[in-house]
């Protein structure tokens, strides 16, 4: 009986975490592939977000990228409560890093880290990514 209560509690905790603990940055799909669309979505209402919900603009700033036909700065569009952009991953792409910026405010996963956009093929990261 005690194990059932513990298991039930863990399941409830996981469901609540999934419903209420949404990440501030989402890459959709989570394993983007070459020549397919990827969406980068930012939630400024997330508890960890540093860019305020009433920001006038938000940009992706690529710090490393071999997606050469895209500019190093890409604007996101406001869609409901989210900021997002979608683009097709180039057929040769392998990897990119970026942070988000609105005016002087930056959002990064940690002080000296950047978000990653790894490219996949058949559920495996592309070699050299």
Task: Tell me about this structure.
The structure is a single chain. It contains 1 helix and 11 strands, in the order H-E-E-E-E-E-E-E-E-E-E-E. The relative contact order is 0.20. It has one domain (23-125): Macroglobulin (MG2) domain (Immunoglobulin-like, Sandwich), CATH 2.60.40.1930. The protein starts with a helix and ends with a strand. Mean pLDDT is 87; it is low at 2-20. The chain is mainly beta. Helices cover 15% and strands 38% of the residues. Strands 3, 4, 7, 8 and 9 form a 5-stranded antiparallel sheet that branches. Strands 1-2-6-5 form a 4-stranded antiparallel sheet, with no helix packed on it. The chain is globular.
Note the topology.
Layout: H1 2-20, E1 25-28, E2 37-42, E3 59-65, E4 73-75, E5 77-79, E6 82-88, E7 95-102, E8 105-107, E9 115-118, E10 120-121, E11 124-125
Antiparallel strand pairs: 1-2, 2-6, 3-4, 3-7, 5-6, 7-8, 7-9, 10-11
Looking at this protein, list some descriptive labels.
129 residues, mainly beta, Immunoglobulin-like, 5-stranded antiparallel beta sheet, 1 helix, globular
Mean pLDDT: 87
**Uncertain ranges:** 2-20
| CATH architecture classification | Sandwich
Cα radius of gyration in angstroms: 17 Å
Distance N to C terminus: 48 Å
Count the beta strands.
11
Please outline the major beta sheet: 5 strands, antiparallel
């Amino acid at each position: 009986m005690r194990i059932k209560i513990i298991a039930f509690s863990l399941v409830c905790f996981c469901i609540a975490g999934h419903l209420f603990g949404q990440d501030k940055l989402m890459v959709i799909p989570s394993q983007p592939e070459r020549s397919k669309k990827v969406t980068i979505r930012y939630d400024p209402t997330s508890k960890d977000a540093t860019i305020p919900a009433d920001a006038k603009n938000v940009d992706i700033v690529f710090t490393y990228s071999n997606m050469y036909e895209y500019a190093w700065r890409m604007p996101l569009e406001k869609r409901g409560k989210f900021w997002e952009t979608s683009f097709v991953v180039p057929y040769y792409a392998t990897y990119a890093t970026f942070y988000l910026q609105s005016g002087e405010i930056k959002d990064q996963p940690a002080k000296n880290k950047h978000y990653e956009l790894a490219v996949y093929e058949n559920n495996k990261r592309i070699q050299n990514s």
